[in-house]
Amino acid sequence: MMRVLFICMASCLLVVNGGNTINRCALAKILHEEDLDGFEGYSLPDWLCLAFVESNFNISKVNENVDGSFDYGIFQINSHYWCNDYQSHSENFCHTDCQELLNPNLLSSIHCAKKIVSGSGGMKNWVEWRLHCSGRPLSYWMTGCHLE
């Protein structure tokens, strides 16, 4: 019985420490400091919704796609177009190593996301944003966040 309890507790610790998530309001503050509020017409709630639907605020998320490319970080930026993962062909339009998109300071992810949003399609480049955020009221994403 004690062994089962130990295994359950250890599993819970692994789940808690398994991801590198950021608090919604802490992310809002960083995005605000990096001048994303209003960038290319997108509000902070747009950016928060994007981060939530893509990674559930998980900075270290990596997802493999059926085409062999990978999506990296809080905004799930794709290796085929935007970063170099040294595993497959990459256009590397952001001129960055995909592992940099997993950095907790988020600067590489933010700079690359700005480049993506500045191009044709804006945030519509992210399917999940189109499906779950576009055209919806999003102000609730800022509830309780103080950006002073």
Automatic annotation (TrEMBL):
Glycosyl hydrolases family 22 (GH22) domain ranges (all copies): 94-112
GO biological process: defense response to bacterium; fusion of sperm to egg plasma membrane involved in single fertilization
InterPro entries referenced in this protein's UniProt entry, alphabetically: Glyco_hydro_22 (IPR001916), Glyco_hydro_22_CS (IPR019799), Glyco_hydro_22_lys (IPR000974), Lysozyme-like_dom_sf (IPR023346)
Alphabetized Gene3D superfamilies for the sequence: 1.10.530.10
GO MF annotations in UniProt: lysozyme activity
Cellular component terms per the entry's GO annotation: acrosomal vesicle; sperm midpiece; sperm plasma membrane
Signal sequence, start to end: 1-18
Matches recorded under SMART domains: LYZ1
Protein keywords: Disulfide bond, Signal
Pfam families: Lys (PF00062)
Family: Belongs to the glycosyl hydrolase 22 family.
Identification of the protein by name: Lysozyme-like protein 6
Organism for this UniProt entry: Mesocricetus auratus (Golden hamster)
